Amino acid sequence: xxxxxxxxxxxxxxxxxxxxxxxxxxxxxxxxxxxxxxxxxxxxxxxxxxxxxxxxxxxxxxxxxxxxxxxxxxxxxxxxxxxxxx
Length: 86
Fold this sequence. Notes:
GO molecular function: single-stranded DNA binding
Protein name: Single-stranded DNA-binding protein
Pfam family, one: SSB
CATH superfamily: Nucleic acid-binding proteins
InterPro entries: NA-bd_OB-fold (IPR012340), Primosome_PriB/ssb (IPR000424), ssDNA-bd (IPR011344)
Keywords: DNA-binding
């Protein structure tokens, strides 16, 4: 029987919940933190529309962190891909 390794991969599209916050490590590496909200609407067994919102905190590093800080603002729609970490 074949076994498969674990996979940690995330792709999502949502809107920024706050403006990105850019800071720098003591070594000069950019770190940018922001949040996104991903909306999901579905119909339950009774036929009612249900709306859910998933809130995710995002951290980017280096040049990507600087670009995020420069070009993205609260409310902007964005696609995210990466790994989930706690």
